[in-house]
Amino acid sequence: MRTASRWDVITPFLLPEKPMPPSPDAVRDERMRNLVFLSTPKLWPAWPFLPLVRRRPSREDECGLLFDIFGLKGTAGYSATIFLCNILMMPPTEGEFLNLPREVYDSAEEIFEHGWRVD
Asked: Per-residue pLDDT for 39 more than 60?
């Protein structure tokens, strides 16, 4: 018969079954940070692209890119379009890139509400 160790008593208190939910301040801060980045291409470290990720339970992570083609060439209509691509696996030409599968939204807020986050 196994003798209980000190860790058998302590472990349940150190490892809760469910993680604690984030505080309201943390949720607000995450939202604001993402909205600022999504709507401010000057802040994008890989401009004219902003890598995004969408993480959902029981699904693989999805990679996406915002493309500031308006800031680059003056072409309108793509400011809330997420191209479904990993920045490390982008096609070699702009034409091929623009033909990638995409999700089109109306605003940075809508992008955030659909689960996309700055990566």
From this structure: yes
